[in-house]
Amino acid sequence: MTAKIRSFKESDLPFLFELLKEPEDEQKLRYMHYGDGNLLSWIKERRLKVLIAEDNGKIVGSAAYNDGHWGEEIEWLVACKNANAKIVENMLVKEAEKYVKKGAVLTSVNAEGSKIEEWVQRGYCPNGGLYYMLTRLSGLKTIPKIPEGVLLRSLKPEEENGFVQLVNTGFEYERVRPGDIQKWKTENPPFDEEWIHVAESDGKLVSVVVAKPDVGYNRFFNAKRGYLGPAATLHEYRGKNLASALTVRAMNSLFEQGMDSVCLFALETNVPSVKLLQKIGFEIGHSWKFMHKHF
């Protein structure tokens, strides 16, 4: 085995894109469907440190490290399917772990696949996970009742700062930034502020659910699917049906836009949110396990 690990170059992009399409499970690399040009934008935007395994001039594997809102993470790990695949993957993991600064790193693995044991052998332990949830849109749903005085509406263009503050307060970390709405408009036409559903109480934004067309999925599969997220509710306004009402409002809006299904992602540990979504028709379509390693 003569594979060597090096840093990613833009000229690697077509080979990397093809390599990322190989895994049999539903890779967490959802942005794959946008094409290699947007893959490069994703790499740059998230400041991924991408590693390439090369053997006799041929790219045989890749891994990416990211220090993002989940923490320090191995974003992906892929290798060509051959007898040396596990050797290449282990080399890439060891190299990616050199970037870890805070003593812990995670990755996400198909919960129904065979990779969990391989990560355990590398010193990783399962802890929590992520659900991909979806439901069909076959008609308008009744919006759940909410407290008197709370108004459900779409975001106004001049309210971006309030939107950013609401989402980041609800998530308790920087989930969105000023300028993200304009970026979403560019990436997800015909998205605009009308697709951002908010609850207002006493003149203040207190809950939000963002709806978008799932442009990449729709283009790749010739589908009509919507996507929900991010969604957030201020702590003191939780338990008042606001998230349920906004989610149904967003689903109705997507149905009126011609979508026939909608998907989102939910943390396995967020049991109240998962139960809420199941109550209004969502089912778990796929799941990943978070694998953590402490140094």
For the structure shown, list the relevant keywords.
alpha+beta, 9 helices, four-stranded antiparallel beta sheet, eight-stranded mixed beta sheet, Aminopeptidase, 30% helix
In short:
The chain is of the alpha+beta class. The chain has helices spanning 13-20, 36-45, 85-97, 115-121, 160-171, 180-187, 215-221, 242-256, 271-279, and strands at 4-7, 49-55, 58-68, 71-79, 104-110, 125-136, 150-154, 196-201, 204-213, 225-233, 261-267, 283-294.
Question: How would you characterize this protein structure?
Answer:
The chain is α+β, with helices and mostly antiparallel strands and 295 residues long. It folds into two domains: 4-102, Gcn5-related N-acetyltransferase (GNAT) (Aminopeptidase, 3-Layer(aba) Sandwich); 139-259, Aminopeptidase (3-Layer(aba) Sandwich), CATH 3.40.630.30. The chain contains nine helices and twelve strands. The chain has helices at residues 13-20, 36-45, 85-97, 115-121, 160-171, 180-187, 215-221, 242-256, 271-279, and strands at 4-7, 49-55, 58-68, 71-79, 104-110, 125-136, 150-154, 196-201, 204-213, 225-233, 261-267, 283-294. The chain has an eight-stranded mixed sheet, with helices on both faces. A hairpin with a 2-residue loop joins strand 3 (58-68) and strand 4 (71-79). Helix 1 (13-20) crosses helix 2 (36-45). The longest helix has 15 residues, at 242-256. The radius of gyration is 20 Å and the shape is elongated.
